[in-house]
Each structure stands twice: as C-alpha cells, then as structure tokens.
Design a protein that fits this description.
The chain is α+β, with helices and mostly antiparallel strands. It is built from five helices and four strands, in the order αααβαββαβ. Strands 1, 2, 3 and 4 form a four-stranded mixed sheet that branches.
C-alpha cells in the first residue's frame, strides 16, 4: 500500500514529493511549481520598439516627417521604388534592456505648430504605445526637432516647388 502512495500523481499545481531514495531534478520541481506564464524568457528586439515608437510619433498632428535630411532623402527614394514599403522607423533610435527602453526621435514639424506642444504630445504617445504594447518601462523619450516644414518649400512628394 505504501508503494502506491509513493507513485500516485501529485495534485495539479503542486510539486510531487520525492519518494525516499528517489532523486528529483530541479527543473522537474520548477516545472510543476511555477505557473506556465512565468516559465521561459521573453525578449523584445530593438526593431520592434523602433516601429512602435515611429508609428506613435507619426500619429501626432504637427509632425510632418521624421529623420534628418539624408534619411528623409533616402526614404523618399525608397518609397518610390515599386514594391517598397515606407520605413516607419525612420528618425527613431532605441536602446532596449530586459525591462526598460530609451527612445530618441528626430522630427520635422509643420510651420506654425507650437514645437513644445508637439514634442510633449509625441513623447506621451510614444511612451503610452511602447509601454502598452511591449510591457517595457520607457525611461526617456528624447526629441530633436531637426527641421520645420514651410508651406510651399516642397510638395508632399519631396520635389522642390517650381512656383514661388
């Protein structure tokens, strides 16, 4: 009768007590004692956070474009290539750790829009999106306004306007 008690399965969710003289591996105990949601590790790639932050920044009214001059030029060329996809991460750099992320964003704002307001709105939207989607704590969002888009400077397709 005692042999049956030693080999009977343990109640679900509780580790089985090892029988006398029987060795039990540590992983076997962990497997049975930890909830399934905590077994294993989740890592989030920098590219994931870049795309989330880029999309969140572009949602804000007053943001005309993102990235410095060279990256915008290359992006315009890339957008015109048949089958090419727009780079939503242009103008965004991130550092991602195990539990935290830091984000740097380069913006081109529309002329006449208050820059501090746009920067605040972008910062709030990026923090909210990254934290909600990834679960990472965003420790900072640094915003660099690298240009202002003036009406008539260039058309929306990136070519200079011929009419002054």
């Amino acid at each position: 009768m005692t042999a049956m008690q030693d080999t009977a399965p343990a109640p679900r969710g509780r580790p089985e007590e090892p029988a006398a003289g029987r060795a039990t591996g540590r992983s076997e105990l962990n497997e049975l004692s930890e909830p399934s949601g905590t077994r294993g590790k989740t890592s989030i790639a920098d590219a994931v956070v870049v795309k989330i932050a880029g999309r969140a920044a572009r949602e804000i009214p007053g943001v005309h474009d993102m990235g410095g001059g060279l990256s915008r030029t290359l992006g315009a060329v890339r957008d015109r290539v048949p089958g090419g996809r727009p780079n939503v991460g242009r103008g965004v750099k991130v550092e991602v750790g195990a539990r935290q992320a830091a984000v740097d964003v380069e913006l081109v704002v529309e002329y006449g829009v208050p820059v501090p307001d746009v920067a605040r709105d972008v910062r709030e939207n990026v923090i909210g999106a990254v934290e909600r989607i990834t679960g990472l704590e965003v420790v900072e969002v640094n915003i660099a306004v690298v240009d202002v888009h003036l009406p008539g400077d260039e058309d929306d397709d990136g070519t200079p306007s011929r009419v002054a």
